[in-house]
Amino acid sequence: MSGTTNGSTTNGRRVGVLFGGRSGEHEVSLASARTVMDALAEAGYTIVPIGISPEGRWLTSGDPHARLASGEGNANSRENSASGYSVTAFIPAEERLPAVDVIFPVLHGPFGEDGTVQGLLEMAGLPYVGDGVLASATGMDKITSKLLFGAAGIPQVDYRALTRREWQKRPETLLDEIESTLAYPLFAKPANLGSSVGVSKVRNRGQLAAALELACAYDRRVLVEAGVERAREIEVSVLGNDEPQASIPGEIVPGNEFYDYEAKYTDGCSQLLIPAELSREQIEQVRSLAIRAFRVLDCAGLARVDFLLAGDGTLYLNELNTMPGFTRHSMYPKLWEASGLPLTELVHRLVELALERHADKQRNRISRGQ
Hints:
Blueprint: E1 4-5, E2 8-9, E3 14-20, H1 26-43, E4 46-52, E5 58-59, H2 64-70, H3 75-82, H4 87-90, E6 102-106, H5 116-124, H6 133-140, H7 142-151, E7 159-163, H8 164-169, H9 171-181, E8 186-190, E9 200-202, H10 205-218, E10 221-226, E11 232-240, E12 245-246, E13 250-253, H11 261-265, E14 271-273, H12 280-296, E15 301-309, E16 315-321, H13 331-338, H14 343-361
Parallel strand pairs: 3-4, 3-6
Antiparallel strand pairs: 1-2, 4-5, 7-10, 8-9, 8-10, 11-12, 11-13, 11-15, 13-14, 15-16
């Protein structure tokens, strides 16, 4: 391996790839991480795999990816959690973290994509790929991000937010309120999960009640959104820091009634149309809105921005994903490949962006005397 990609040297850098995690998207993270590690190795980096078990135990010895994939890395975590966690419980001595130059956190969902790990890495002073604490936290929380996108004038579908406590205390009243303001079909989803975990499409009151019960099992805050008639699902990949660029748009044709977990991660279940069949004006609108959304949340590195295109041509922002899937079926790398940036160069660029942002942060004063 030459240690170069597209004319830029990797300088023998060691990239710690962080994967697994405590969310319901643990398995997706393992699949994404395998793709990322293979691409980084091809780009000339030294890979340092760092796994996190579903119970939160950090693994660095042996082959962390294989240990998590087999379930072997989880055994001691349940014992530790019985008496509460400590630093030595989730990073025991035998799993000492090795030296790395930059972290690539391939974590999806809570405790990985929501700003928690990003805050830990900030405290440690480590450069890391992807969005910072603010963008990760607001991007993960669909209710907060909707408020910010709405304030910026970005078009979205009508929605209603509620809490688990509200649902438990007055379910019939909430159902009445939702039905009086939103028309079926509706989508109910947890505010802080991805990969369509806990998401339901409903067409009547009974289904809505069951969907809210399911969503509340995953999060204390829940979102109910109006459906869009004859909607097409359009996605755009964004790359960059202060000067982000948008890929060509793609379209998802779900294999199921909507783009749920199985449709996303079962090979052949859904169809990816790249590029999406859009007019020149629609392409420019989608790309422009994607970059606007990226900047509204102060994103860095990468994001995938998802839209719904109604039958009448109206475009709605659906959501922004701060750490999109990186499996071989995933839209984010496929869109960049179709835009002229192959996977190996894409991961190299993401590492460069991480180091660029870290260097820029070092310019900040931390006290008045400096």
